[in-house]
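Hi C.,

You asked whether I'd gotten around to modeling the 184-residue construct. I have! Everything is below, sequence then structure, no commentary in between.
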Amino acid sequence: MEQALVLISIVLGVAITFELENLNRLVRAPNVRWHWAQLIFAFFALMIVLMFWWMMANRADGRSITLGEFLPIMGLLVVIVLIAAAALPDRVPEEGRLDLGEYYMVNRRYQWSLVLILVATVGGSWLATLFTRYGFVQGMIRGWGEWLPMLLIVWMIFADKWWKVGAGYVAMSFIPIAWLSRTL
């Protein structure tokens, strides 16, 4: 796993680089109209990168993994890099304004669909384990921390009014509390 962690670190480093380069470009541009929704998504994307790396680093048990075991991880890495690349615009027009609120509304389905792919893959795997151990009903009850975020992400895909986006972000702010409670 140690060699795989090196590659994972490199790929996730690329994701962080995309975000930081785009942030630098936006901060330096005089014609950017900032908006809270896209900035929160960018922060959320950065947290996804960090949480995934932390999860993989804690998994390093010293044993080697096969290519077959690594390929699904690589698929998730591709999705994470796409999330980070879309988190902030990579171009600022020379003329006119770049409105991050407009960018959010135009790209929200793409951005949140990528997040849904990631969360459904990781969370779906855990839900399948719970269903196998406890049955469907008990699995759903014990797995609320997995399916609830998926429902919120679906909400965010279709949230087309700012109050809906705000409500979705407020609801999503409780997810890290649930995840952190597992490690405390």
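If it helps when you're writing up: The longest strand covers residues 32-33.

Thanks,
B.
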